[in-house]
Amino acid sequence: MTATFTDLAGAHVFITGGGSGIGAALTEAFLRQGSKVSFVGRGDYADFAAKMGDKTGDTPLFIKCDVTDTTALHAAMDRAVAEQGPLRVQVNNAATDTRMAPADITVQDWDDQIAINLRHYFFACQKAAALMGKGGSIINFSSASYQIAGDKLAPYIASNAGIIGLTRALARDFGPTGIRVNAISPGLVLTKKQIEEVHTEEDLAAFRERQCLPENLYPGDVPGTALFLASDLSRMMTAQCLFIDGGLAFTG
Description:
This protein is an alpha/beta fold.
């Protein structure tokens, strides 16, 4: 981390899925800016929160929550504001990229994936706007997958295309109150899950060959863009989607 966004010091940032993968990198990055970070996750990330406290000097507020339970998600956001102060930045990041052949997808499978990958984004934005009142930044994480269309990912890809439409619609709706809504679309970011469960070295080599920048992407490559969109340096940017994919989506 080389840049300091002074206006983020003391700002309250709420992150969904902030305990692992890209979300964990986001949590650490905002903490290092001096932000007050709250995050939710379906698993137990208390140890991660404590580790972040040791590394950065500030311990994030972790609230265990399934983001597909809208009532619980809204309650977690209310609790975070009560304990950490007014909400300045909302980062919607929680997602699952479960792979299933189209013929095998049931109605329940579809609904379950849409619930985490798209539905929770809307209801988190809805609540964030109410908590922010006047001014703030909402950042929705999409994926470059909706541009490159990987196989066996129909609900995930449909969700991520929907996130872009949702981002633009809410940017229009929330704009009069000074709330900005933008999106970030990472490419193939090598989280622990992607390395251990999904991709072979042959897969990665093929992705690198298609990218303009032939290097692997890692979680640490993502937070800088989120910090910029959260900061007042981007105060007149809204309804935008920024890709972090080594140039894959539009040239590969």
